[in-house]
């Protein structure tokens, strides 16, 4: 029977496909005729309208689908009534939901009595659903794209797995019984983990499904004719489940099942208990198994227990540190694939060949393996989701993702087109012209040459992005070094020196040639390290990473401005990470990070010590944009909020560690920008102060939540219940209050609250309000000072609180104000000049500021004030000054130093504040000096000279911190600055009698 004239417009299909379409059309009509005859002979009622009565749009779609897909045509020949059912249910346009699929399959399995019936029902169900999936993929109704197709196939596989497993459990329960409940009394079922693209929810049209079977706890089945150990029961059940899907029958198969990703592969048990799986991955898990587990997801059986199992295995998959060793593993895996592709002549394979599907997956999964432990947003099975999150994490530019995602979609669309032809798992391009025409039509492309041109373009882009992430840095350096001078040292030269293959004299000559002034000392240091017990006892993987790194490191050392200094400062870092070899891999995989490391260590022994003490800070070297550009306060707060948000709220240890890593990392950024000269001194102190403020806000919130959970909320003074925001203040004094923190500054703090002192908290374990706030203060100090592997946050000094160490740890605002009015010494009012709220409740902060203004703005007898200030200054000089060597002076404590300027500013505020309230606004010396100038209280020239002196002195003190030198300056260098300070001091505070 020929194609009807009105079946489709003649120009909708390539002419070459029409003969094949006519043959399928003929077979369909013969099949329909046979169905009609059977119905007439058995007396069945025929449908009122057979499939020839499809709407015009459906008839056109039918022609397109039959022209492309032999699978669709063969299915309709065998089951000619299915098309009408699919059309009536809406399945030709819309993906059925998971619940709908489960209900449909349950209805078909309800009457199944034996395994043969189960197999037949599953296969027909799968074939009908696949007809709908292929139809939608080839016709693309609204909302259907490659991702929707992949999700639909995955959902179908999950429905078949769950439906088959449930039927098998019920069917064999009389014989084998049911597993004993877990220790907590909950039911115990098989856990089916989907791996690979099934786990990702991104199966292709004709894919294997990779599975791992597990069960929660050991025991014996109950209630059956035979009691089985759980291991045996779940093994038998797993075998039956595999056969239900994988066995080839007259109806074909449902899904090919691959169990080789389980522990020990085909040689291991089919099913493992949670404890045995956890022990295996902890003790024997290999890198490729980490890669495989990235996509693990519970897909059938006890889904909740599956999530629990993956939680236990997460530390194996995602390291807490940046694991650049994963790149080497992926590189090795790709090399194996490349060799196999070459051996089997599969270069045209769009999955495994160059620039293919697997390379896109490797790019994404490399970041998941390397960063997933830290950036928990990447702990997702879906490639699409993980890829979309890379730009926000600063791991791939948005423009790269904007290329990779559509290129991946094209490759997967091409893969689906190839597999739609015959429902066969293939990624190889067709040789037959007819199949090429079909694939071009499926992709809505003009012809096969157009497909190949687009494919080549995509592959080139994918390979470029793959190489940028996975390529061997040593090869890149060697390529970059081709333009070096002929007499320059190669990586092979450095490798020979490190491995001890050169005679001592030859090695020293080589080091001298590379710019080392003390070549003998440098060689001795390297030899000592290589022959050290630490190195000789390293495990093979760590030793190999060290051997791979050292030539690159020595090349970077030689390229630095001061090779001797750089080597001396970087080797302690290498020694510190010999047992944490992921950091060796990090440096080896990132030559640019090595360059930054040399620059920072060469400039600052303090930075070198920080990196050796806290190697996790090496992560910062990977992003130069942020390394030399500290974040402002709002971005700091956002970064800290995100970092803490990735950690369970009840994991205090992890929170403490995260706070410390955050602090060290951001202080390193400030120091790096300071050394690079990209930040003005004032900004350096600003950023160091911002870091402290953000951390104090976080610590206060953590401490408040902890106390409230235990004891409930305290009552306000008006008797109402306090809110979720801590009604508490952390007041910063000294350098913190004056916005002048340095690299090693401690924090001078005072704690204040304003709650009902007579009340108690409203929780299950109530305590008196003063006790609550005292414990809150103690908790804050603990969070700041507790020692973790990353050290402490800050040293804390509470001696500036009312009555010092003899006073209460936390005061009410009224008690604080009363103390300042009645009992505080002049030096305490001086300290109050540099006090400001750094964390806490906004309304309460306004109250504190009002008290501060009142106290500082009070009128004082000027001469008595002058005597008190001078007396205190002399006492400080006696204890702290006069210790510098000849020709030097102490930047802080000697006459003309920073403390003199601070006292000058404090005296000015206390003596003039009642007349000049503008002076009461600021707590930092620079703005106090600016206000003294703008209000005319001090001569402009004098204020300008004092500001210049203060900046110069502070800058020198900052530099001394970074270089680990004493905070001292040369008299000659600072003479004019000191003189300006001394003259101002004498004029204001020590006028001639």
What would your notes on this structure say?
- With 993 residues, this protein is mainly alpha-helical.
- α6 packs antiparallel against α7 (146-176).
- It contains 42 helices and 14 strands.
- It folds into five domains: 90-317, Beta Polymerase, domain 2 (2-Layer Sandwich), CATH 3.30.460; 325-471, Up-down Bundle (Four Helix Bundle (Hemerythrin (Met), subunit A)), CATH 1.20.120.330; 475-480 and 488-622, Four Helix Bundle (Hemerythrin (Met), subunit A) (Up-down Bundle); 667-856, Beta Polymerase, domain 2, CATH 3.30.460; 862-988, Four Helix Bundle (Hemerythrin (Met), subunit A) (Up-down Bundle).
- It starts with 17 loop residues before the first helix and ends in a 5-residue tail after the last helix.
Can you describe this structure in just a few lines?
The protein has 993 residues and is mostly helical.
Question: How are the elements arranged and paired?
Answer:
Layout: H1 18-42, H2 56-68, H3 70-78, H4 82-89, H5 98-109, H6 115-139, H7 146-176, E1 178-179, E2 191-195, H8 196-200, E3 209-215, E4 221-222, H9 230-246, E5 257-258, E6 271-273, H10 274-284, H11 287-293, E7 297-301, H12 303-317, H13 325-343, H14 357-371, H15 383-389, H16 398-422, H17 433-442, H18 448-470, H19 473-480, H20 491-498, H21 504-513, H22 519-530, H23 533-536, H24 540-559, H25 563-576, H26 582-589, H27 591-603, H28 605-613, H29 624-627, H30 633-645, H31 652-676, H32 681-711, E8 728-733, H33 734-737, E9 747-753, H34 769-785, E10 796-797, E11 810-812, H35 813-822, H36 826-833, E12 836-840, H37 842-856, H38 862-880, E13 888-890, H39 898-912, H40 925-934, H41 940-963, E14 968-970, H42 971-988
Parallel strand pairs: 3-5, 3-6, 9-10, 9-11
Antiparallel strand pairs: 1-4, 2-3, 2-7, 8-9, 8-12, 13-14
Helix pairs in contact: 1-3, 2-3, 2-6, 5-7, 6-7, 7-9, 10-12, 13-14, 14-18, 16-17, 16-18, 20-24, 21-22, 22-25, 24-25, 24-26, 24-27, 25-27, 25-28, 27-28, 30-32, 31-32, 32-34, 35-37, 36-39, 38-39, 39-40, 40-41, 41-42
Cofactor: Mg(2+)
Region (Adenylyl removase): 1-476
Protein name: Bifunctional glutamine synthetase adenylyltransferase/adenylyl-removing enzyme
């Amino acid at each position: 029977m020929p194609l009807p004239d009105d079946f489709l417009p003649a120009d909708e299909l390539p002419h070459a496909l029409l003969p094949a379409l006519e043959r399928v059309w003929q077979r369909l009509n013969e099949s329909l005729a046979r169905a009609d005859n059977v119905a007439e002979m058995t007396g069945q009622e025929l449908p009122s309208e057979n499939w020839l009565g499809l709407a015009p749009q459906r008839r056109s779609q039918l022609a397109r689908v039959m022209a492309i897909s032999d699978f669709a045509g063969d299915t309709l020949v065998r089951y000619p009534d299915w098309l009408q059912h699919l059309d009536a249910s809406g399945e030709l346009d819309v993906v059925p939901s998971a619940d709908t699929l489960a209900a449909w399959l349950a209805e078909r399995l309800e009457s199944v009595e034996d395994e043969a019936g189960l197999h037949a029902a599953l296969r027909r169900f799968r074939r009908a659903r696949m007809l709908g999936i292929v139809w939608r993929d080839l016709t693309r109704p609204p909302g259907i794209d490659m991702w929707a197709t992949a999700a639909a196939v995955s959902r179908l596989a999950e429905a078949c797995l769950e439906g088959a497993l449930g039927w098998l459990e019920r069917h064999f329960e009389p014989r084998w019984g049911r597993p004993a409940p877990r220790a907590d009394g909950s039911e115990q079922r098989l856990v089916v983990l989907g791996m690979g693209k099934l786990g990702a929810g991104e199966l292709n049209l004709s894919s294997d499904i990779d599975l791992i079977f597990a069960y929660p706890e050991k025991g014996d089945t109950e209630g059956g004719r035979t009691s089985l150990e759980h291991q045996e029961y779940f093994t038998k059940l797993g075998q039956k489940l595999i056969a239900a899907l994988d066995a080839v029958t007259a109806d074909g198969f449902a899904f090919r099942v691959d169990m080789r990703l389980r522990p020990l592969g085909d040689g291991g048990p089919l099913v493992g208990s949670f404890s045995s799986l956890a022990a295996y991955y902890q003790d024997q898990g290999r890198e490729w198994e980490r890669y495989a587990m990235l996509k693990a997801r519970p897909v059938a059986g006890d889904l909740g227990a599956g999530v629990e199992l993956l939680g236990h295995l997460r530390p194996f998959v995602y390291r807490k540190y940046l694991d650049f060793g994963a790149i080497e593993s992926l590189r090795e895996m790709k090399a194996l694939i490349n060799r196999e592709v070459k051996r089997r002549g599969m270069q045209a394979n769009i999955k495994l060949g160059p620039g293919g599907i697997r390379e896109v997956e490797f790019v994404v999964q490399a970041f998941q393996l390397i960063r997933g432990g830290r950036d928990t947003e990447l702990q997702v099975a879906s490639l699409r989701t993980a890829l979309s999150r890379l730009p926000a994490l600063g791991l791939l530019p948005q423009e790269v993702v904007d290329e990779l995602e559509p290129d991946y979609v094209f490759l997967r669309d091409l893969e689906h087109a190839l597999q739609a032809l015959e429902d066969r798992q293939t990624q190889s391009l067709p040789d037959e012209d007819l199949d090429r025409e079909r694939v071009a039509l499926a992709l809505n492309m003009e012809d096969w040459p157009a497909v190949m041109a687009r494919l080549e373009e995509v592959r080139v882009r994918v390979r470029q992005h793959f190489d940028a992430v996975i390529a061997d840095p040593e090869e890149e350096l060697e390529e970059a070094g081709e333009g070096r001078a002929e007499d320059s040292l190669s990586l092979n030269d450095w490798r020979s020196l490190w491995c001890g293959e050169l005679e001592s004299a030859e090695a020293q000559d080589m080091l001298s040639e590379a710019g080392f002034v003390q070549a003998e000392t440098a060689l001795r240091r390297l030899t000592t390290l290589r022959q050290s017990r630490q190195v000789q006892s390293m495990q093979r993987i760590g030793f190999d990473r060290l051997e791979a790194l050292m030539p690159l490191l020595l090349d970077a050392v030689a390229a630095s401005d001061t090779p001797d200094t750089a080597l001396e400062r970087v080797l302690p870092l290498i020694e510190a990470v010999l047992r944490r070899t992921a950091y060796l891999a990090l440096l080896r995989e990132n030559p640019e990070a090595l360059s930054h490391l040399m620059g920072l260590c060469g400039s600052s022994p303090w930075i070198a010590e920080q990196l050796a003490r806290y190697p996790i800070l090496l992560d910062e070297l990977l992003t130069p944009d942020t390394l030399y550009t500290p974040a402002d306060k709002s971005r700091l707060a956002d970064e800290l909020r995100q970092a803490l948000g990735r950690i369970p709220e009840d994991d205090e240890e992890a929170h403490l560690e995260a706070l410390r890593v955050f602090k060290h990392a951001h202080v390193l950024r400030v120091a790096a920008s300071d050394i690079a000269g990209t930040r003005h001194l004032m900004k350096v102190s600003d950023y160091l102060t911002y870091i402290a403020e953000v951390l104090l806000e976080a610590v206060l919130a953590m401490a408040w939540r902890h106390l409230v959970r235990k004891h409930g909320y305290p009552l306000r003074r008006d008797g109402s219940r306090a809110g979720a925001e801590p009604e508490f203040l952390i007041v910063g004094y000294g350098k913190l209050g004056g916005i002048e923190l340095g690299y090693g500054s401690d924090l001078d703090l005072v704690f204040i609250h304003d709650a009902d002192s007579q009340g108690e908290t409203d929780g299950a374990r109530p305590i008196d309000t003063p006790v609550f706030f005292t414990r809150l203060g103690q908790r804050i100090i603990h969070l700041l000072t507790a020692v973790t592997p990353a050290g402490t946050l800050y040293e804390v000094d509470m001696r500036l609180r009312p009555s010092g160490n003899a006073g209460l740890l936390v005061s009410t605002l009224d008690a604080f104000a009363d103390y300042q009015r009645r009992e505080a010494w002049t030096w305490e009012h001086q300290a109050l000049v540099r006090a400001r709220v750094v964390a806490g409740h906004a309304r309460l902060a306004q109250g504190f500021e009002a008290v501060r203004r009142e106290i500082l703005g009070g009128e004082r007898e000027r001469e008595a004030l002058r005597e008190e200030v001078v007396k205190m200054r002399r006492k400080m000089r006696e204890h702290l000054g006069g210790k510098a060597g000849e020709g030097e002076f102490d930047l802080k404590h000697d006459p003309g130093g920073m403390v003199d300027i601070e006292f000058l500013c404090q005296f000015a505020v206390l003596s003039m504040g009642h007349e000049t309230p503008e002076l009461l606004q600021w707590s930092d010396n620079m703005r106090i000096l600016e206000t003294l100038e703008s209000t005319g209280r001090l001569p402009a020239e004098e204020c300008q000279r004092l500001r210049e002196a203060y900046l110069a002195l502070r800058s020198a003190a900052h530099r001394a911190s970074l270089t680990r030198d004493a905070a001292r300056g040369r008299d000659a260098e600072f003479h004019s600055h000191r003189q300006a300070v001394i003259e101002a001091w004498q004029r204001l505070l020590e006028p001639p009698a």
